Amino acid sequence: MTSLLEALQYSCSLDPNAKRSLFLQEKVHLLRQMDDLQRDIDHKIRQYASNFSDISTESTQVLIRRVIRLRVSHIFPHNDQIAEEIDAQNEQWRLEIQLEDSKHLATYFRKIIVKCDASDTNIFAVEWTNYQKSSQEMEKLEITRSGLIPNAIVIQLVPTHISERYALSRELKEIIGEHLQRNSENDTNVDAFTKKEILVAFWEYVFHRNLMKEENPSILECDEKLKVIFNACKSVPYASITIALERHLFLQESIDIVYKVKDSSSQSFELKVFVPNEICKRKREIRSEWEQLRQKQEIRLMQLEKHRFNTEKQLLEVLQRQQWMRHFALNPVEFMRKVEHSQKADKEVLINGRQSSNTASQDAQFHQPWAADIISDIQAIPEASLLNGSKGSI
Hints:
This protein is of the alpha+beta class. The protein folds into four domains: 2-55 and 282-330; 63-162 and 253-276, YEATS domain (Immunoglobulin-like, Sandwich); 166-251, Orthogonal Bundle (MDM2), CATH 1.10.245; 332-388, no CATH class. The protein is 47% helix and 19% strand. It contains eleven helices and twelve strands. α9 (332-355) packs parallel to α10. The radius of gyration is 44 Å and the shape is elongated. Residues 54-58, 357-367 and 383-394 have low confidence and may be disordered. Residues 161-251 form the DM2 domain. It holds the Pfam family SWIB. It comes from Albugo candida. InterPro entries: SWIB_MDM2_dom_sf, SWIB_MDM2_domain. This is DM2 domain-containing protein.
């Protein structure tokens, strides 16, 4: 590109017409600016992509664990009095649930179920959800009830982002409970584990008791405890173990905590929940912005490329026309003789092409700079007129 611009610049300097030379030099200057702009855009896009790729791979996790503290408290004006001295019909007590980091409850939970007295089926549980806009802005959940306050209140917290954790049946927990407690990365106060943790603990149990058959490693030999899990089977294929364990796993969607009223008037619970990774979210936004920028730059570059092509074409046509006129000025007779000879050759090729489709094509003849207008006129003339040499030839 640079060599072409230099050649055009040099040709412009040789043009004796000052006004035309100035016009051509402006066009060449515009082409230089377009070329510099394209290089600058390419450099910025490469730099942007390089900075984007430097983001830590740890930020690719969509959800991350976060420790939160949930504070539960109650207000009852007669905590020190015995139940017989209290008028249960007229007295009220209030339960409050809030986060210690002053965030909205909807930030971490999509549902909260409060069971004030689990032993009494006539008392309905209180359920809060974050589906309504007013609930999404709530920082504290307050529940007011009449009568005596229960000794224990069960609170079920359903996180907004649930990780797949499973509670174990009593039989399975007796077998692998020891291995689970040692290897688990349990992030809540709930006795639930991931499938990976459960399977690892199970295979540790199998390994330590040497239950793999030597003659057939794909078969698990069951001891008395495993026979309870696998319906009294003496041996189980490895491929069936995961399926057989499914009936002993129970998906835990909620975090259950028990608030004991008699211990104190308030209690804090440390929970670990999953929240969206802000870095990952920002990374997706950057990727989207970068993709939009890349598409816009591609469209802009296509427009610039098209404009540059048209400008170069115009410049070359002007320079070629100048060259023709310079040759014509130096030797007009010889120049016109060559033009006439070229036109006749093009006319013969055209006539021969119409007469026989097998005639070899001589496309090079039609590439003569002065032949374009001539040939377009000849194509509009009937074949008989061309053969008779009637008017129409130049």
